[in-house]
Amino acid sequence: MNGYHGVSTNIKALRISALLILIYFVFEIAIALSTGSLSLLADAGHELSTFVAIAISLLAMQLATQKPTPKKTFGLLRIEILAALFNGLLLLGMAGFIIIRGIDRLQNPMEVSSLPMFIMAFGGISLEIASLWIMYKGQKENLNIRGSFWHVMNAFLGSVAVIIAAAFIQFGQIYVADAWAGILFAFILIWASFGIIKDSFFILIDVAPKEVNLISIEKELSKIPGVKKVHHFHARTLVGSIKTFSGHLVVKDMNQAGGILKKAKQILDKKHGFSLSTVQIEDENLSETDIKQLEYK
Ligand SMILES: [Zn+2]
Asked: Domain 214-294, what fold?
């Protein structure tokens, strides 16, 4: 299979999933509001967030095809990160709302009819299994799809929670089970939202990528023959798997600069997988105006 075919198949899978989830969300929110089921409302909230997450993946793939301009030199790639942060905050807000409503419901229990809960949750589970099946192959090769895959996996857990609550109501008239299931699922949503918020926030404040160890890269670069000192190292995630690096190498002899740069590029691009590395080769007498505050040691 060629690359183009793979990408278009993934986009198609995401579009189908997004549409199914959106339709399901509309039904679920309507039934949650009309029955007053809190666990259904929590599941609907997650459904909305899953839809947003898949929409972000699709947007990201679209934005990646946009050409950069002299003003927007990275194109619009990082909008994906902003959108992910927004989705994380949305998820957190929904979870908070469900927990507040749930605590209120525990104090003032309300009869919820279990049949619509069963119908919605079984409908949800079949859709979720279908989505997981469609995405299973793509999630192994594409980070974006993997994120969506785990979103749907959480939705699957939400549907299971609704079914368990509906069973408690159906067979034991234990109506608080609905509130408990809603609250429990809201905590899963908080946990999921923290992951999204943390990852996107760290990228936005330019924390070095998880897999990058600047200390060991520093050692490797300073071992290149002819390199005297290294400083001003920065590594960041632009978006997704695109990592960038910049740093300065002080060399003994500027005549060797070409060979040293070649070796440095090999270490950075080939070994450590930086998509964009900028290395400044300088001699000791260079007077620099760089912000000293940005040197981490
Ligand atoms: Zn320097």
From this structure: Alpha-Beta Plaits (3.30.70)
